[in-house]
Amino acid sequence: MQPVVCDSSVLIHLAKIERLHLLRDFYGSVAITPAVWREVVEEGKDREDARLIKEAFDAGWIAVDSPANKPLVKILERHLHPGEAETIALAVEKSALVLLDESEGRRVADIYGLR
C-alpha cells in the first residue's frame, strides 16, 4: 500500500466530526510531521479533536515522521505554513499520497508530482 502523509486540517476536521477512523479504515496508517503534531496536538491540547488524534497516535496508526530534506522544507516555507511545507517534503521523500485541504498546498504538491 502506498504511504500516506496527512496535513493538520484534514486530521482536525475528521476528528471534529468523529470520523478520524476513516483514515485508518482507508489507508491502514498515516504519517504526520512534527509541525503538524505541534499544531494539532500540542497547541490544541485542550480540545477534543487533539485528544482523539493523540489516541490514534498512541494506538500506533498515526506516526510522526520528520522530513530529512531540510533545504526543501525551507524553500516550501517561503509560500506555505510549516505543517504544509513539512507534509509535502515528507510526501516527496516517501513517494506518498498527500492529504491537504489548502489550495496553495495542493498546487505545490502537484508541482512535485504528488497525488
What does it look like?
The chain has 115 residues and is mainly α. It is built from 7 helices and 4 strands, in the order E-H-H-E-H-H-E-H-H-E-H. The protein has a two-stranded parallel ribbon. The protein has a two-stranded parallel ribbon with strand order 2-3. Helix 1 (8-16) packs across helix 4 (48-59) and helix 3 packs across helix 6. It is globular. 37% of the residues are buried. The model has no long low-confidence stretch (mean pLDDT 95).
> H/E element string?
EHHEHHEHHEH
Assign the CATH superfamily. Answer: 5'-nuclease
* CATH fold topology: Rossmann fold
CATH class bucket: Alpha Beta
Please report which band the strand proportion falls in: under 5%, 5-15%, 15-25%, 25-35%, 35-45% or over 45%. Answer: 5-15%
> How many structural domains in the coordinates?
1
How far apart are the termini? 14 Å
Mean pLDDT: 95
- Separate helix tally: 7
Query: How many individual β-strands?
Result: 4
SSE diagram, text form:
Elements: E1 4-6, H1 8-16, H2 21-27, E2 30-32, H3 34-42, H4 48-59, E3 62-64, H5 70-76, H6 82-94, E4 97-99, H7 103-111
Parallel strand pairs: 1-4, 2-3
Notable characteristics:
115 residues; mainly alpha; Rossmann fold; two-stranded parallel ribbon; 7 helices; 57% helix
